[in-house]
Amino acid sequence: MIFSARALDVLKRSQEIQKDLEFCSKDGELTQQIRRFVRSLEGPLRSQLKLEQWTCTEEREGSSFIWLNLFPETWRLHGDEFVAFGVSWCNPFEEEAEDPYVFVRTPTLDAFPGRNNLLKKLRPALVERGFEDSPDAEPYWPIWKHVSLEAFRSSSSFDVDALVLALVETFGRLLPGVPIIDGFFQSLPAAKRVPQIPQPERHLKLVAFLDTETAGTPPNAKMTELAIILAAYDEIGDQIVGVVEECSLKKPKPVDQSKVQALLERAEVTVAHNCAFDRAVLQREMPGAEKHRWLCSYRDIDWKALNGVAAENLQALLQAEGLRSGQDHHALDDARDLLRLLAVQRNGQTYLARLLKKTRSAKA
């Protein structure tokens, strides 16, 4: 025999190995999913840390690194420069790969003459909270803290939701630095301050994300769980800026119809993934629920054309966007997952914006 058993086995698996290499390459799908993950952090950071009014920008270096920056407009410098807090991650198979990290961003000294004076005030407060200080004299990211991926790995899975919580918590440790940076900019002579352009008024729409769990088979399925998440959506900025209220009800506890009705009345639209089913289930429990304006993320978004997923299953769609579904299959998990999915931007527009736009067009 010319080839050994091991060689034959490798030859058989060569196509699979090639696919893995392409997946992990600099421009591969792993890099794309990491980018989508970093972008998706904007929502949790804004809603959980009350940063709704901060500006968010994205920066890239080559194909792998991505930085998500958040900052109030008062931290903007002349030109395109600014001071910011942020999150970054790189494809872990790249040569210069690192674990994701949370950082302070400052321009270099030539673009920001006051940089060293600011850092002198800022460093002690953040080093005390576990951040590291760069030995380099003029990096863009002089203060940072890595979040080790090892804590979220197991032999069979990776806990993405726990990683999100850890990154948000680490970012929150930067917030004691806000008054220090604010004070620094306020101390600058008026001539050196960037004139503040009035920010456009936000047009916020309240959207209810709803899911039900049932027992039995249609059309007689009985509702066992109901979850509603009321979120504020900025139509101009095309982003979900925060969660206003969550409601989770489980049988045999009776449904608080007045609370559910109040949430649905506050929302301009109610979104469900296959709303025909959820609406019918809720209607049997609460006659009149069908009168609210319902949108269907299952039927009214062309998922195949946008992200290549043929199946409209919620978990498959989350996976295609680099998002992990809830660990337990409960109504509240699914409602949260639906919110996260529709907050994703695809080709410069969120899925929620596409859903609202298509529905408005159909109504017109």
Please characterize this protein's 3D structure:
The chain has 364 residues and is an alpha+beta fold. The protein has 2 domains: 164 residues; 160 residues, Ribonuclease H-like superfamily/Ribonuclease H (Nucleotidyltransferase, domain 5, 2-Layer Sandwich), CATH 3.30.420. Strands 1-2-3-4-6-5 form a 6-stranded antiparallel β-sheet, with helices on one face. It has a 5-stranded mixed β-sheet with strand order 9-8-7-10-11, sandwiched between helices. A two-stranded antiparallel ribbon has the order 12-13. Helix 3 packs across helix 5 and helix 10 crosses helix 11. It starts with a helix and ends with a helix.
Concise structural overview:
This protein is α+β, with helices and mostly antiparallel strands.
Helicity level, as a percent range? 25-40%
How would you classify the helix and strand content by structural class?
alpha+beta
Rounded mean pLDDT is: 83
Number of strands: 13
Task: Provide the succession of SSEs.
Answer: HHHEEEEHEEHHEEEHEHEHHHEEH
Topology:
Elements lengths: L4 H19 L5 H12 L1 H8 L5 E7 L3 E7 L12 E6 L11 E5 L9 H13 L4 E2 L9 E4 L13 H13 L5 H10 L16 E12 L6 E13 L4 E12 L6 H10 L2 E4 L2 H11 L8 E3 L6 H5 L6 H7 L10 H12 L2 E2 L2 E2 H13 L1
Parallel strand pairs: 7-10, 10-11
Antiparallel strand pairs: 1-2, 2-3, 3-4, 4-6, 5-6, 7-8, 8-9, 12-13
Helix pairs in contact: 3-5, 10-11
Identify the notable features of this structure and list them briefly.
Nucleotidyltransferase, domain 5, 2 domains, 12 helices
